[in-house]
Write a structure and sequence with these properties.
By secondary structure, this protein is α/β, with parallel strands linked by helices. The chain has one domain: P-loop containing nucleotide triphosphate hydrolases (Rossmann fold, 3-Layer(aba) Sandwich). Helix content is about 30%, strand content about 30%. The longest helix has 18 residues. The two termini are about 20 Å apart. About 40% of the residues are buried. GO terms for molecular function: ATP binding; ATP hydrolysis activity; transmembrane transporter activity.
């Protein structure tokens, strides 16, 4: 039996908005298996990005438990959580968040600056990651010399260069045309199926969700359904 890589119990998240408290997540319970590819869907304001950020350690819950690979992260302090993120999570966002003055290779190397790897090792690892995403011939290109789809591939290479336990994707195709979006989704699917990456992806696009193994639906802060894709 495949172990749960992510285990969530009675998760709540409340924000203070002016004089009132708004509960965005209400007692969410969820297990995500190692090697799974999960799409999170739901209407605007349903809590899907909040849940994604909690799983990825970008935010902390108001209540409940989150364990990733058997390690509780819900009660970590800021510094401890930052270290945990750098070791365990790769992030892919809708807007690629690349440094415009840096080449593709140097952008991909950025997470490795926090490690003890030598400059030569960082360069080598970045080249391997860029080859994996199909950009072996674009290592010296800067973001403005790349298409949107290629920039997102660089962002994915940056997310996987540290070989993270978990890949967190927030609307990764939201800024792309349909063909580029399908290319990126196919790449994520390959990383999942052939390289064993566990992926959690927020999307509003049903076609994007079809690339995942499972689709979870959130509505008003509660999980309301799950759909498993055919292999």
């Amino acid at each position: 039996m495949t172990m749960a890589l992510v285990s969530i119990r009675n998760l709540t998240k409340t924000y203070q908005r002016g004089p009132e408290k708004v509960e965005v997540l209400h007692g969410v319970n969820l297990d995500i298996a190692e090697g799974d590819f999960v799409a999170l869907m739901g209407p605007s304001g349903s809590g899907k990005t909040t849940l994604l950020n909690l799983i990825g350690g970008l935010d902390t819950p108001s209540g409940g438990e989150i364990a990733v690979n058997g390690e509780r992260i819900d009660n970590m302090g800021g510094g401890q959580l930052s270290g945990w993120r750098s070791r365990n999570v790769g992030y892919v966002f809708q807007f690629y968040n690349l440094m415009p003055a840096l080449t593709a290779q140097k952008n991909v190397e950025l997470p490795l600056l926090l490690t003890k790897l030598s400059g030569a090792q960082r360069k080598r690892n970045a080249e391997i990651a860029l080859t994996l995403v199909g950009l072996a011939d674009r290592t010296k290109h800067k973001p403005n010399e790349l298409s949107g789809g290629q920039q997102q591939r660089v962002a994915i290479a940056r997310a996987i260069v540290s070989d993270p336990t978990l890949l967190i994707c927030d609307e990764p195709t939201g800024d792309l045309d349909r063909q580029s979006a399908e290319d990126i989704l196919g790449l994520l699917q390959t990383l999942n199926r052939e390289h064993g990456k566990t992926i959690v992806m927020v999307t509003h696009d049903p076609k994007a969700a079809e690339y995942a193994s499972h689709t979870l639906h959130l509505d008003k802060g509660t999980l309301v359904g799950e759909h498993a894709q055919a292999a």
